[in-house]
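Re: the 120-residue chain
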Amino acid sequence: MSHIVTVQTQLRDPLAVAAACARLQLPAPVEGTAQLYSGQAAGLLVQLPDWKYPLVIDCAQGELRFDDYGGQWGDRRSLDHFLQTYAIEKVRIEGRQRGYQVTEQALADGSVKLQLQEHV
């Protein structure tokens, strides 16, 4: 039986953040405090390519803080790609923990189709 699921992403899993960084060949996330333009923020720091300031992820709250100055200090597409990759990695982690085989297929529109199947 097939089901379609929509995933709303909250960044709560440090392992999935690290897996997304590794998959995108970004530096590993580090716990710390970053000086953003408008102030400081603490959490997991992720540096996206060509972004002036890092992303700051508060996994306890599922919140993301960043300053891209409306795209002047960072391309929002990089952020969207990171968020999509985080969601994929989170589904893969959860699926494997529950005994599912996870496959993925990139679609022409940029979305990703994930399929979870029980191991037989």
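The beta strands are 30-36, 39-46, 55-58, 63-65, 100-106, 112-118.
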